[in-house]
Amino acid sequence: MLELIVSDMDGTLLDETMHIHPRNREAIMHTYQLGIPFIVATGRNFHEAKVLLDEAGIRCPIIGLNGAILFDREGEVEYEIDLDDQVAKEIIHYGHEHGYYMEAMTSKNVYSNSKHQRLHYIADMIQRMSPELSFEETLSRASQSNEVNSIEYIDDLTDLIEEEGQHILKLVFIHEKGPQVLHPIQQELSQRYDNIYITSSFKSNLEISAKTANKGGAVAKYCQAHGYNPKNIMAIGDNLNDLKMLEMAGYSFAMANADPAVKEIADYVTGPHNEGGVADAIYKALDLSQTNTQWDKAPYGD
């Protein structure tokens, strides 16, 4: 019996327009009718995720910032795992000294040290998902997006700690050259600090959080708190920050557009995010788990 469905958002639940694909919404609503709960586990913060879920009429708990924070259905924080303040400040200083573009996430919001670079980062994400669009078109979409207009811009991210008293849950380094620049940063920071966890949700970013803050740990904690057996849950994702979550789920799915490492870990590969691949995976999981189902649409594979 399938007990719980956990889905990543970017490159998974969301299509190339950065909205929830209609087929995915339909499948999720079907599982609600069966009494199977649905949650998202995303690198996004609460507000970025909630806007898109609300738009699709989906109300669910949100594991945010790669597992560093959990919000219940009402938007209340159940727990958060922050970076050590001194470590966070040192990493920010390191980024400033080397001239890297950075973002910081707290329980309140996302903060960027450059609106110009944030705009181009989001435009690049859109173009990766929709390569047929011109860069001018993606830049126009990005400039109007919630991902650019809902966050705050601050020159020195250490002010969040020193002046506002906030705790940073995740730091992100972003560079257009991807692993060529980011991999050496990862190696250096990993050697310097043993209490951080570093992963990636896109080739152009590096995401840093506390060592215990990851999607797999967050899903395991959620299952323990709510009495779900991890062997009876479905998890689906597309990138490296989803690996630990997929490893602990009884039914694990990678998107067709997923990183090769994700496909290697997952039990099954479903359709691409642009075609509502999450819906196909849900129907497949219902079939595999022999969950009693009655749906209007033909199940996966028919």
From TrEMBL:
Keywords: Hydrolase
Protein name: Cof-type HAD-IIB family hydrolase
InterPro entries (UniProt xref): Cof (IPR000150), HAD-like_sf (IPR036412), HAD-SF_hydro_IIB (IPR006379), HAD_sf (IPR023214)
CDD domains in the record: HAD_Pase
GO molecular function term, any single one: magnesium ion binding
PROSITE patterns: COF_2 (PS01229)
Pfam families the record matches: Hydrolase_3
The keyword DNA repair is assigned to this record: no
GO cellular component, one term: cytosol
